[in-house]
Amino acid sequence: MNIEQQITSLRNELREHNYNYYVLDNPTISDFEFDQKLKQLQDLEKAHPEFHDPNSPTLRVGGEITKNFKTIPHTFRMYSLDNSYSKEDLEDWEKRIAKMVDGNVEFTCELKYDGASISLTYENGKLVKAVTRGDGFQGDDVTANVKTIRSVPLQLKGDYPSLFEIRGEIVLPFEGFTKMNAERVEAGEEPYRNPRNTASGSLKLQDSAEVAKRPLECLLYSLVGERLPIKTQFESLEKARLWGFKVPNEAKLAKSLDEVLTFINYWDIHRHELPYETDGVVVKVNNLQQQEELGYTAKSPRWAMAYKFKAEQVSTVLNQITYQVGRTGAITPVANLEAVELAGTIVKRASLHNADQIEKLDVREGDTVFVEKGGEIIPKIIGVDFTKRDPNSQSTQYIIECPECSTPLVRTEGEAQHYCPNTEGCPPQIIGRIQHFISRKAMDIEGLGGETVALLVNNGLINNYADLYLLKAEQIIPLERMAQKSAENIVNGIEASKQIPFERVLFGLGIRYVGETVAKKLTKHYKTIDALINASEADLVTVDEIGERIAQSVVSFFASEENLTTIERLKSYGVQLEISADELANQTDTLSGQIFVVSGVFTKVSRNELKKLIEDNGGKVSSAISSKTNFVVAGDNMGPSKRTKAENLGVAIISEDEFLEMINF
Ligand code: AMP
Ligand code: ZN
Questions:
Q1: Ligand 2 centroid – CA 408 distance (Å)
Q2: Secondary element (H or E) of residue 220
């Protein structure tokens, strides 16, 4: 096999594995083997840029930045759907259409996936365009972002038409959503409220590498095009599956409205077992000839009807409102309910979000409340059954002191949440911070778990994370359920954490809004904790992707004497608070003071590597061309508007090779 054949064969193989894993949920090789093959392909592609393919499986990781999404008109309008809410609505609809078409009418029943609609265009089996619905006539070009979604085929298989569009919904399955939220909470950020908004928000992220990290899926339901080789909606779903699309298997052909109702009744109950959110059923006339006869109204097809499930709702008694204190001191009010079954699970607690929400609903302890499970994972209280309210009940007074340490709470102008400002003395904050410090993505201290941290704090052995480094096995052994061996493991684990690189230490410090990615950016830019401590807000915001909110949080963290003392102590114990000599060896000041904009696709290094090279050599990467830009590094397919802008501003445009020469790469 020559190189080109090798590359082609690896691409085909990886595509197939991708398909098995993400579309069929049935992988046939291990993740490790997959990664090895991917690495092999990456190396070959890097060594042989002449075989570049914009749809190669190696490009799933993203890296393209879109500042302004281009508006593109839809070749075929994206209609909305009419809604129905009852059996009677559907019967009326059936009668209306029966009069308008010849012959017997059959239906395809599909689930109505709750996400962001998307239209994908394929030319000769390759994905060429992904556009959001927008207003139905035109939408945003989000191709770069959609390409990172693993269940979207970049290259089709089988007997596909040479040109067509396919429509579907981009969803964020519950499991991934929950995981993303756990990570956000870990970084001290507000969790996302629901999967649907998070999915549509993801499509508009500027950095496609960020989109690639989100566990999005694309579920398809409709083929659009001229003279497609299909006769029915059901057949189009089957065909799309064969070409490599993820088309959920729940869809059914119904020979009568009775069968449609059976489908609806079944899924009204069982939809909670699905891995993603649905908000109804879409019933479509199956025969495409009949669809054509029926046509469209001003805003929707006459041949389709959505049936909306009622959001499940129950009423129950609210026994008590309690308040939780998070690691960052944020207070969350929680409704403790009389246990009740809702959407297949037993619910005992519901979120009340914040003080405004409590006031808006006027909920009180002892009230009978309506609880709903909509898009949100955590059920929410949507109202009070005032007919059942005790006439003597008193309106809820939001707490003014921390339930854990009695410090008066504060609430910053414009923020919904109350905070306990006693960062140094409030037990859940103390424990939470240390738990975060030792967590897997931070210091990853083996042998030490969250409960042990609480035990150590409650026994007065530690009060902040620096204290960990003074712990001795003899102090730990006397604690509950501790033995010589486990105590030694803890001490050894703590010792080993002194090798953890600076970027993870920085994440572990628990600065609000400084999650894993931000910590990496800051580390790369400032290199040492001292440089970061001395950075002003104005300086911080010049770092790629660091906004005002993060900058403020960093500055205020280092403004605290206590934090500075803790950091001095960590330093004295040998914790890594600057990047290591090895990492530093690859870094120079060659590009110091120069601002770069990177545009297009590169062949010798990936876009991300290119940016890293700029930063490692002292340059700055900016996302938009301005008069301050010194160089635009232009790859293939650099946008014409960028080029014009650079030319007008007199900014030097250099090629990838010219850039690599600058740094003697
Ligand atoms: P609505 O936004 O309520 O007008 O509902 C129409 C939207 O439902 C469409 O734009 C699609 O994004 C979405 N949808 C979800 N599942 C389906 C499906 N199986 N068939 C058609 N549309 C669907
Ligand atoms: Zn407190």
A1: 8
A2: strand 217-224
Sheet holding 631-634, edge to edge: 620-622, 595-599, 631-634, 652-655
Model confidence pLDDT, tens digit, residues 380-395: 898 999 999 998 999 9
Q: Is residue 109 annotated as involved in ligand binding? A: no
Enclosing H/E stretch for 17: helix 3-18
Buried b (16+ CB within 10 A) or exposed e, 626-657: eeebbbbbbbeebeeebbebbeeeebebbebe
- Amino acid, res. 513: Y
Tokens describing residue 634: 């232009």
Q: Are 203 and 170 in contact (CB under 8 A)?
A: yes
CB 102 within 8 A of CB 202: no
Q: What is the pLDDT of residues 418-440, one digit of tens each?
A: 999 998 899 999 999 999 999 98
The secondary structure of 78-131, three-state, reads: CCCCCEECCHHHHHHHHHHHHHHCCCCCCEEEEEEECCEEEEEEEECCEEEEEE
Ligand 1 contacts CB of residue 169 (under 6 A): yes
The pLDDT of residue 4 is above 90: yes
Smallest-distance ligand from the CA of 300: 1
Residues labelled catalytic? 112
Q: What's the average model confidence in pLDDT over 525-538?
A: 95
Query: Of ligand 1's atoms, which has the minimum distance to the CA of residue 78?
Result: 10
Between CA 370 and CA 318 the distance in angstroms is: 10
Q: Is the pLDDT of residue 375 over 70?
A: no
Residue 297 CA: distances (Å) to CA of 136, 267, 294, 300, 304: 14, 28, 9, 5, 11
* Alpha-carbon 284 to chain mean position: 32
81 is in an annotated binding site: yes
Q: Ligand 1 atom closest to Cα of 79? A: 10
Lookup: tokens for 276: 């993603």
Q: Worst-scoring range by mean pLDDT, 481-485, 498-502, 568-572?
A: 481-485
Task: Give the span between the Cα atoms of 619 and 613, in whole angstroms.
Answer: 8
Q: What is the pLDDT of residue 528?
A: 95
pTM to 2 decimals?
A: 0.63
Distance between CA atoms of residues 92 and 526, nearest Å: 67
- Contacts made by residues 651-656, CB under 8 angstroms, sequence distance 24+: 651/597, 651/625, 656/602, 656/603, 656/604, 656/605, 656/610
| Amino acid found at 57 | P
Best residue among 83, 84, 112, 283 to mutate for probing ligand 1, ranked by most atoms within 8 Å of CB: 112
Sign of CA dihedral 603, 607, 613, 614: positive
- β-bridge mates for residue 631, sequence order: 596, 652
Q: Residue 170: which of 225, 216, 132, 126 has the closest Cα?
A: 216
Is residue 300 within 6 Å of ligand 1 at its C-beta?
Answer: no
If you average pLDDT over every residue of the chain, what do you get? Answer: 91
b/e 341-369 (16+ beta carbons within 10 angstroms → b): ebbeeebeebbbbbbeebeebebbeebbb
Cα(326) to ligand 2 centroid in Å equals 9
For the CA of 300, the closest atom of ligand 1 is: 4
Per-residue pLDDT band for 271 (boundaries 50, 70, 90) equals confident
